[in-house]
Every structure is written in C-alpha cells, then in structure tokens.
Amino acid sequence: MTSQVSYKLYSSSPRVGLFDLPFEVLDLIFRPLCPTLARGPYLPLPWRQNIRTILRELKPFADLRLISISINNVITPIFFQEAIILISPFSTPERLTDFFRSGAPYMKSVVIFGHTEGRRPGTQWPSNAIKEALGQGLGLLTRLQNLECHGEHAAFADPLWFQTLTPNLASTVTSLVITPVFQFQAGVYQSIRSLGASLTRLAIVDWIGGVQEDIDFPTTHSLPNLTHLTLQHGNPPPHGLQKLFASIKDARGNTPLRSLSILDLRTNYDVEVIANLLTTDRLGEQLKSLRLRLSLTKSTKAAEFPKVVLQACPNLREFSYATRPVDREIFSYLPPTLRKLEVTALPASHIHASTSVTPQAIAAFLRDQNLQTLRAVSVRSLYSNPGMAVDPLLTAVCEEVGAQMTDGGNGSAIIIL
C-alpha cells in the first residue's frame, strides 16, 4: 500500500525542465558559456585576428536566444553586457542602429574596432552615415561604464560628433581605452576633452602625437578623477607627455593618479624626461603602483633610472621594472612601503651580469632584505630556458628563508614571502 501511494505521488509531480528553472539559476548556467574578449594589462595586438575569432565564437551563443522566451531573457543581458562592434567598409548604418537598439538597456562595456580592408579607392572613411549611426547608438546607452576604441573607427572623429550625438557618455563612462591609427590621432585629444571629467581609468595605445597637438590638447584639470593611466607602444613626444600629465589635476590642483604604467614606448626617453613627469606636482609621491617596461640604452643613462624613479616615488606598494638590463643597485632604493616587486633578470653568464640583476643578485636580496611589507617578488628571466622557476640557487634560497616559489610561465617565477 505504501509503495503504491509513493508511486502515485511521484508520478503525479510535475517534471522540472531547463525552462522551468529560476532566472538566477539559468544565469549561473549560461553566463560562463559566453565567450569573452581576452585581455591582459592591455588589449593584445594584433587585434584584427582576435576580433574575428571572438565574433565567430559569439554567434552560436547569441543564437541560443532562439530556443525559448525564457532562455532569450537570460541570454540577451549576458550577450550585450559587453558589446563588440566591428566597423568596416562592409558595415551598414541600419545594422549598426538595429544592434544598439536591441542591446542598449544592457550595455555596460562597448569595444569598437575599425578597419578599412576592402574599401573602394576614393571613398570617404568613415562615412558620415556610419559616424552618425555609431554616435546615435552610443547616445542610447545609459549604463555604459567602459569604452574602448581601436583602429580606424569613427568615434571622436571630430569635435561636434560627441557634443551632438553622445553627450550622455560624459556622466557614465569611467574607463576609456583608445588605440588611434595615424590619421585619427586627434581622437585622443577629442576623447579626453569629451570624457575626461568622469574618467578614473585611461589607456592610450599607439599614441604618436599630432601636428595640431598644441591646439587640440585639453587644458589643465581635464582629468580631475583619473586614478589609473596606461601608455603603451606609440611614440608620444616628451612635451605631449608633459601636457597630458599636467591635465591630471583636481580642482585643488592635486593629482588623483595612483597607478601609472608606461609600457614598450618606441622612444628611448632620457632619465630626465621620466624624472620630470614624476616630480612635476609631486606626482611620484602620490603613486601606489608603477609599471615601467622600457628599452634603455647607454645614452639614456640606464643605470640611473632605478634610483631616480624610486626616489621620486617613496610610497609605492607595487613596482614593476622590466627594462633591459636592470641595474642591481635597484634593491638599494626600494621604498619601505613596497608589497610587490617585479624585475627582469639576466643569466649569470651574460656580459652585463656583474652590474645587473641576476639569480645571484636576487638570492642575496632575499637573504638580506628587511622590508617589512614586501609580500611577493616576481622575476622574469631573459635569455634562459626553461625559466627561473627551476633555478637551483633561487630554489635553495627560498627554502632557506621560508619563501615559496612557483612557476609563473614564460620564463618567470613568483616568490611569495
């Protein structure tokens, strides 16, 4: 009797299918399936191959919206949360407009890529229709926080574009990444002038300056809330850098900048150029994080760089100094506030080993260092194989001082103190 009752109760209970699950559960299921744009400290280059790959991967995820209304309600916000837009000679204003209208309520991040491959000779690029459709689409967004513009795009093509089509972005966008090609260098200045008041993060990739720089560059206090700045690749002139840094001030004339990354610029700046940037308005004293990856030569006074930089930045918590080579005296100048250090190391057999950071120099530092706050040392090995993580000297010293060393990949090691 009991078994019959149990069978009846079981058989009469409705079966719960995928479509019957709560929205929150479906979101947990589908969100990890959405392809995302790969990022490191900056967008990987070349981006043309990356963008085609991610767009191919996104299509089947977007097609899941066709399964049912309940699945569409889950997929749509996930799909549009970061919108990836390719602007090319094959783009049409109608498709661009439809895309924005479909996802405007959900877009928090927009990544725009532009290229002219396939453009017919003599045609205008970008067309006025594309510029207008892009501006009107961005003008619909009320939740946008991150904007990235790469390549030959139509964003910030002229001063009136922002003022007439997208003024709302100035109240919501806090993060901007811009990669201008040569003919769109003015877009750097226009974007800073348009969005600068709200930005807390700014990355400029492939900035080389422009002939109208003195006219176009924003005035002082254009970036009153900027806390993170990254400059990568490109060849900005020193006076352009000075103008940029001069614009990073709040209403009281203080710099809000706390994190600065200067990576792989094609200009070999003298130590005086970097020193001027860090000492102007006491910028270096405010920094908590500094990442430098520079190609130094004898003419740039490479040996003086660590001393000058660290003396100007006495309150750093994170310091990455990936130059070639790194003078071993760097360990003498580290601030007492430092928590994380990243350096590059030469093998002991290198011609400059006696004056540069090597495994032996790092071992001596680990034995003798008395920085109370230091928690991690990341070491990237140059010209070595398989990498620093298996270096027997560092392994032995880590055991000696009670540190743990792990392989960070690509010839690097992470030492946890």
Explained architecture:
This protein has 15 helices and 13 strands. By secondary structure, it is α/β, with parallel strands linked by helices. The model has no long low-confidence stretch (mean pLDDT 81).
Give the tags.
13-stranded mixed beta sheet, globular, single chain, 417 residues, 15 helices, alpha/beta
End-to-end separation: 68 Å
Give the total of beta strands: 13
Which percent band covers the strand fraction? 15-25%
> Which consecutive residue ranges, at least 5 long each, have pLDDT under 50?
none
What is the topology, as strand order, of the major beta sheet? 1-2-3-4-5-6-7-8-9-10-11-13-12
So what's the overall shape? globular
Largest sheet: 13 strands, mixed
Please state the average pLDDT score: 81
Q: Percentage of helical residues?
A: 25-40%
Radius of gyration from CA coordinates: 26 Å
- Which class best fits the helix and strand makeup? alpha/beta
Would you list the SSEs in sequence order as H and E?
A: HHHHEHEHEHEHEHEHEHHEHEEHEHEE
User: What quaternary form is this?
Assistant: single chain
Number of helices: 15
